[in-house]
Amino acid sequence: MGDMLMLGFAGFLGLLKIVLMALSAFGLFDAAFRREDAFRAADKQNKVFWLIILALALVVSYLFSILSILPIIGVVASIVYIVDVRPALKQVSGGSGWGRGRGGSSSDGPYGPYNGGR
User: What is the predicted pLDDT for the residue at 106?
Assistant: First the structure.
């Protein structure tokens, strides 16, 4: 019974480790495709700072046990990026637009303004 409980706990920690790595990887991927000037405009450090922090969070979550302090710090940094920095960057750059802001009106199609079939 005790072995089964430990196996279940180890499986849970393994799953948690994968989730935390995915969180860090998502933040890193998102930050990599954001424009540098969006970070400055949102007043959220700079792109290099966040790339380094999120890359370290990913590496630490891979190398260390979930029960140590370093992965917890990495998770906190990833969560701060996702819930605070990312929305501010999206607001500054206009929508989700990885790499560039999207302008135009709501009647714009993928190739320019929609003219009603004329």
Answer: 52
Number of Cβ within a 10 Å radius of residue 77: 20
Q: 104 pLDDT exceeds 50?
A: no
pLDDT at 5 over 90: no
Contact assessment for residue 105 and residue 87, using Cβ atoms and an 8 Å cutoff: no
111: Cα within 13 Å, side-chain hemisphere: 1
DSSP string, 6-60: HHHHHHHHHHHHHHHHHHHHHHHHHHHTS-HHHHHHTTS--HHHHHHHHHHHHHH
pTM for the whole structure = 0.70
Which residues are 108's β-sheet partners?
113
